[in-house]
From TrEMBL:
Residues 1-20 have a biased composition (Polar residues). This is TolC family protein. It comes from Halomonas binhaiensis. InterPro entries: OMP_efflux (IPR003423), TolC-like (IPR051906). Gene3D superfamilies: Outer membrane efflux proteins (OEP) (1.20.1600.10). Residues 1-33 are annotated as: Disordered. GO terms for molecular function: efflux transmembrane transporter activity; porin activity. Keywords: Cell outer membrane, Membrane, Transmembrane, Transmembrane beta strand, Transport. It comes from the Bacteria. Belongs to the outer membrane factor (OMF) (TC 1.B.17) family.
């Protein structure tokens, strides 16, 4: 499955019985072959997944597409959309005449007299009942399409998060290795001082202790990297080596414009899904109202039945008024229940819109904080590097203790680790915002 076809915010739900969910139909609408070209690539990916996976570079877009091809929740949502599309065709079949047949003995005492009845019924007027059924099925189909988008975006975000986890762990590991390299140079200087008799072993021991701490941190970061890579293998079924950092696209920056934010909110798949759920509830209300009124049918029957002891053929063509069975006040209560479900769906839509807006506002605030922190951390790294050089010169002149240099080196290392995490966190915010708005495809492109 090409994930960009699902997650793109410009994807419009195809009309029932005219367009397939993805791509172009190779058979007539409603035929089983409609999805054959789509399911074959998925089957191929599943088959290839059992083969040994070579280690090659994989981009973020490739990882997302490959992971979604075999993601069970996405495949389940896709099947739900197929089923909903079939239900639209079933609802439209109600416009066609219905045919009922029955046969059996006319007299329990004489099995030789077998009668039959064949009745064809065409609905002439039903107060909009069939139309409401079609509208409801179409709305249900739209809801499943939007649910597929939401599921695909959330699954894609999981893959993106793991991809970024690998990058972040790799960056932190590089920071530890650089820190150890600087400590090694400092330890070499201390060894020369010990050999020359300028200091005792306390300085070297202090540096050795710091190296041991760095080695411990190195083990922690290697464990985090291995765990992130293992999660990547599970989700993508590929080796997470030589991952490239994706280009940065600032979606949140454009969302700081109120008009852009409002339009993006209206197009969010989660909100569109809530709109479709409201339409489903409204069509159910229309159906329940229509069922309270008689339905006008044109009926034609062919009968063979016993009349006066003889089997006689008969033909009947007539207009009939038919109503749903009435049991107590259940028919009217069904209308009340449908109206209450509609109100609940409308409140759910409002809650969904509020949640999306709240999440985006939070992401916008976090973006400002992270950008400020990145700037401060970069300044800390630059300042600490300059201080280390100054302290080193003063140490060689005998004006500084080794603990001063190690303390500044440690602060510089912590700032570099923070910078690595913040740089990746900046990406996370953009992808989280894109997931909320259904714009992951645009951000990844």
């Amino acid at each position: 499955m090409n994930w960009e076809d699902v997650s793109s915010n410009t994807l419009a739900p195809p009309k029932a019985s005219s367009q397939p969910l993805f791509g172009k139909p190779s058979h007539r609408p409603g035929s089983p072959g409609r999805w054959a070209s789509h399911l074959r690539p998925i089957a191929l990916v599943v088959a290839l997944a059992s083969l040994p996976v070579p280690a090659w570079a994989i981009s973020l877009v490739e990882a997302v597409n490959q992971g979604l091809e075999v993601h069970p929740e996405v495949l389940a949502a896709e099947s739900e959309a197929q089923s909903a599309e079939t239900q639209v065709d079933i609802a439209k079949d109600s416009y066609w005449p219905s045919l009922s047949m029955s046969a059996g003995p006319e007299n329990v005492l004489d099995d030789s007299k077998v009668g039959y009845e064949i009745t064809a019924t065409q609905v002439l007027y039903d107060w909009g009942n069939i139309g409401a059924q079609v509208d409801g099925a179409s709305a249900e189909y739209r809801e499943k399409l939007e649910a597929l988008k939401v599921t695909s975006d959330e699954a894609a975000l999981d893959i993106i998060e793991i991809y970024l986890d690998v990058l972040a762990a790799s960056a932190r590991l590089s920071a530890v290795e650089d820190y150890e390299a600087r400590l090694a140079k400092l330890q070499g200087l201390l060894t020369d001082r010990d050999t020359s008799g300028y200091s005792d072993r306390s300085e070297s021991d202090r540096a050795t202790l710091e190296v041991a701490r760095a080695n411990e941190q190195l083990s922690v970061e290697m464990g985090a990297l291995d765990e992130a890579r293992q999660q990547f293998r599970v989700l993508v079924e590929a080796s997470p080596y030589d991952l490239s950092q994706p280009p940065f696209v600032s979606l949140l920056e454009t969302m700081e414009q109120p008009d852009r934010l409002e339009q993006a909110l209206l197009d969010a798949p989660a909100l569109q899904r809530s709109h479709a759920e409201v339409d489903v509830a409204r069509s159910n209300l229309d159906q329940s109202k229509a069922k309270l009124k008689p339905q006008l049918n044109l009926e034609g029957s062919l009968l063979n039945r016993e009349i006066g002891g003889n089997m006689e053929d008969d033909q009947i063509v007539a207009l009939r008024l038919r109503m749903e069975p009435i049991q107590g006040l259940s028919n009217w209560r069904e209308v009340d229940s449908a109206r209450q479900r509609l109100q609940a769906a409308e409140w759910t839509k409002s809650a969904t819109q509020r949640d999306i807006r709240r999440n985006l506002d939070s992401l916008l605030d976090q973006r400002k904080v992270i950008l400020g922190r990145i700037k401060q951390v970069e300044q800390q790294i630059s300042s600490s590097a300059a201080v280390v050089d100054t302290y080193r010169e003063q140490f060689q002149a005998g004006f500084r203790d080794i603990a001063d240099i190690l303390s500044i080196e440690r602060e510089r290392f912590e700032a570099e680790r923070q910078k690595a995490d913040l740089a990746i966190e900046k990406y996370r915010l953009e992808y989280q915002a894109a997931t909320q708005l259904g714009m992951l495809g645009q951000v990844l492109k």
